[in-house]
């Protein structure tokens, strides 16, 4: 009975977490009165910070296990982190070649939204929301919940579906240009998922995701200020 109650409680947490993410992150920006407004950016920032903190609490057992893995084998985990980080850069660059060839001047809606956020939100909020807790939230949503928790589904299907969904949420328009632009996200999803499965350490894809987002935001801000 105790085990059944634990499973039910965990299911409720997972479903509630996913529901909040879908409603706020995916549906609210598409409402006509919120689209392309400063309020929409603030809602996204607050939602990422809220879900990031809630995720760290709700999935603290997974995070604690990841920290334990670092203590047991720091070198192995560091090599996985560096290898996955480099693989993401190399394979992501290759995935972006079709866009560079056919649409070299294309600016994605996602890039435009990030630039808008950089112009409106205070830097600490921008960095915490989209550089740190945003990646944390997305790792819980697209790696830990479907890949780590969804073990009743075949592992290959888990990786493909979660990676496709990760790509899809970054597409703001259903166009060939957006698809080509976000192919790298699909590749990233596969790399992060395989890393999670092979290392059984959720902190590694989280760290890689943060290392991708946070420096990119800081470089964007430096470019805009110069």
Please give the number of β-strands: 0
Which series of helices and strands comes N to C? HHHHHHHHHHH
So what's the overall shape?
globular
- Radius of gyration from CA coordinates: 18 Å
Percent of residues in beta strands: under 5%
Distance between the termini: 62 Å
Short précis:
This protein has 11 helices and no strands. It has helices at 2-27, 38-58, 60-72, 74-95, 97-102, 109-120, 123-148, 155-169, 176-181, 183-199, 203-225. The protein has 226 residues and is mainly alpha-helical.
Tell me what the structure shows.
The protein is mostly helical. The protein has one domain. Helix content is 83%, strand content 0%. It has 11 helices and no strands. It has helices at residues 2-27, 38-58, 60-72, 74-95, 97-102, 109-120, 123-148, 155-169, 176-181, 183-199, 203-225. α2 (38-58) packs across α7 (123-148), α7 (123-148) packs antiparallel against α11 (203-225) and α8 runs antiparallel to α10 (183-199). It is globular, with a radius of gyration of 18 Å. The mean pLDDT is 89.
What distinguishing features does this structure have?
mainly alpha; globular
């Amino acid at each position: 009975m105790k085990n059944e109650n634990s499973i039910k409680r965990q299911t409720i947490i997972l479903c509630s977490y996913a529901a909040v993410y879908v409603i706020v992150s995916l549906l609210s920006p598409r409402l006509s009165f919120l689209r392309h407004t400063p309020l929409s950016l603030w809602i996204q920032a607050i939602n990422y910070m809220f879900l990031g903190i809630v995720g760290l609490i709700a999935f603290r057992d997974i995070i604690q296990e990841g920290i334990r893995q670092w203590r047991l084998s720091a070198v192995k985990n560091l090599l996985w982190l560096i290898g996955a980080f480099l693989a993401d850069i190399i394979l992501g660059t290759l995935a972006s070649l079709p866009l560079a060839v056919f649409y070299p001047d294309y600016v994605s809606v996602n890039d435009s939204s990030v630039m808008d956020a950089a112009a409106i939100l205070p830097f600490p909020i921008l960095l915490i929301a989209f550089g740190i807790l945003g990646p944390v939230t997305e790792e819980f949503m697209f790696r830990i919940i479907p890949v780590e928790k969804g073990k009743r589904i075949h592992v290959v299907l888990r990786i493909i579906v979660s990676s496709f969904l990760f790509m899809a949420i970054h597409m703001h328009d259903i166009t060939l240009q957006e698809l080509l632009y976000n192919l790298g996200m699909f590749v990233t999803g596969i790399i992060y998922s395989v890393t999670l499965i092979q290392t059984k350490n959720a902190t590694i894809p989280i760290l890689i995701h943060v290392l991708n987002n946070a420096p990119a935001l800081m470089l964007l801000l430096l470019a805009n200020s110069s």
